[in-house]
Specification:
It contains two helices and 34 strands. The chain has about 475 residues and is mainly β. It has two domains: about 45 residues; about 425 residues, YVTN repeat-like/Quinoprotein amine dehydrogenase (Methylamine Dehydrogenase, Chain H). The strands form eight sheets. It has a five-stranded mixed β-sheet with strand order 1-28-29-30-31, with no helix packed on it.
Length: about 475
């Protein structure tokens, strides 16, 4: 497309400036100089767009979209036979944080206990138990070369007995880092917030206090903090739905200084990562929740709109696509999916007998996901529940296109590229599903390790963070 535009521009240049199509030597040199300038301009634009989609700077990638437009990714691979396996690097400790990528750097966090065998209980179960994690931990940040898997540097952010407990299925390193190509922000919850440059030099750190969300109906239960930081422009946004004093906050990226903090009122403990809507009107911070799903002004933190009656322990991140805001919220009495118009104002909670109103384009009352962030890709919304129930909706209307059970347990969110969707099960089976309104299973691949983290995409490579390894599939 860019070269077609280039050709059209040259044609216009010749027609307007040299209508007789006879160029003097002076005009010829001018024409060639302009041609070279336009070609360089379009090449720069093409490279910039390509580089943008090579970055995977936060949870779920650019703008938390969960897909890469330009990648050509693998359908099948084999760990044992090394088919399509670019590299496999061991990472010590236990962490569910996802890999993030900037240029050739891949970053990931982990918590390494003095106890070599850190417990992790996966699968479908309803226990509210906490893990016994009372040993000394090193809370670590790793930087790898994304092309070779070589560890370039590692840093111990802090060391000590964790200040808060975790669920038996959780970790002490749940939060995915965020980067803007200059700074790397890492959140270890109760152990603090840390900002590095991309060479591993600590710029600043900040104690956020005790961040110990759990099951709000059982005081004293702690499941581990998991809301990842996001970076937008020169600010960090944090969502801290913790007991007693839930809040969201905006911090200066370069210094860590707090710009604003807004109370979340009577919101209970939730686990989702915020998202940004940057469209007409004000830029909004969008958050999931139970009593307070909503939008806040990016500059001031003032609440713009709110919505209640979500799931009571939501984890999915809001998704911005098609000039709509999708919020998936499930657990307990409610399990809705909402498609919200970004010009919403005030309390937009639906009447009990309604599925839409002035500000809600469509919704479903039941069927939303408790853990996974939905994927909106090529006109469809893919919603996967923890038990493997996959539903495909028309993203604009909410019409159900298909339902299919993958018969597995899932915590990681889906990603997509090259017309394919990748669903990572906890057992390490990667289901590759054809994108579109009809279900088509293209492949099942094994990574032979527990997989709780959402993968990343950069270039033509998929990056999986498993319990013991980082794996690059090309």
């Amino acid at each position: 497309m860019h070269f077609e535009l280039y050709y059209i521009s040259i044609q216009k240049c010749v027609f307007v400036n040299y209508p007789n199509k006879t160029l003097s030597m002076k005009n010829l040199f001018s024409f060639l100089a302009l041609s070279a300038f336009l070609l360089a301009l379009f090449a720069t634009t093409l490279n910039a767009q390509s580089n943008y989609y090579d970055q995977w700077p936060q949870f779920r990638g650019p703008q938390a979209c969960g897909f890469n437009k330009s990648s050509k990714t693998a359908t099948t691979w084999n760990i044992e036979g090394s088919k399509s396996i670019k590299w496999k690097t061991s990472i010590p400790g236990l962490g569910h944080s996802c890999p993030v990528i900037w240029d050739n750097y891949l970053f990931v966090t982990t918590a390494v206990s003095e106890k070599l065998d850190q417990s992790l209980k996966v699968g479908l179960y309803g226990d509210i138990d906490m893990a016994n994690d009372s040993t000394v931990h090193e809370f670590k940040v790793y930087c790898l070369d994304k092309n070779s898997g070589k560890i370039l540097w590692e840093k111990v952010a802090c060391k000590g007995i964790p200040k808060s407990k975790r669920h038996t299925k959780s970790s002490q390193a749940n939060c995915t880092p965020a980067t803007d190509g200059k700074f790397l922000v890492v959140n270890f919850g109760s152990e603090g917030l840390y900002c590095y440059d991309l060479k591993g030099n600590l710029i600043w750190s900040k104690n956020l206090g005790l961040l110990n969300p759990g099951f709000y109906l059982v005081p004293g239960i702690e499941w581990g903090y998991s809301s990842s930081p996001i970076i937008y422009k020169d600010r960090i946004i944090l969502q801290c739905d913790i007991p007693n004093v839930p809040f969201i906050a905006s911090l200066d990226l370069a210094t860590g200084n707090e710009i604003w903090r807004t109370s979340r009122g009577d919101e209970v403990q939730t686990y989702g990562t915020p998202a940004i809507y940057a469209g007409k009107g004000s830029t909004q911070v969008i958050v999931n929740g139970y009593k307070h799903m909503g939008g806040y002004d990016f500059e001031t933190g003032k609440e713009i709109w709110k919505l209640s009656d979500g799931g009571d322990i939501p984890t999915p991140t809001p998704v911005v696509a098609n000039n709509l805001i999708y919020i998936n919220s499930a657990h307990g009495k409610f399990s809705p999916i909402f498609a919200i118009r970004p010009d919403a104002k005030g309390d937009i909670t639906l009447a009990s007998d309604s599925t839409k109103n002035q500000y809600i384009a469509w919704s479903v009352k039941r069927g939303g996901a408790y853990m996974q962030t939905p994927l909106v890709y090529e006109g469809f919304l893919y919603n996967l529940q923890v038990n493997g129930q996959l539903t495909c909706f028309d993203a604009l209307t909410g019409e159900i296109k298909y339902k299919q059970n993958l018969n597995d347990s899932f915590s990681a969110s889906a990603i997509a590229a090259d017309g394919k969707i990748y669903f990572s099960s906890e057992s390490g089976t990667i289901y590759v599903v054809k994108a579109g309104p009809e279900f088509g299973l293209l492949a099942k691949n094994e990574i032979q390790d527990v997989c709780m983290a959402t993968p990343a995409i950069s270039g033509n490579t998929l990056y999986f963070r498993a319990q013991h390894y980082l794996i690059a599939v090309e």
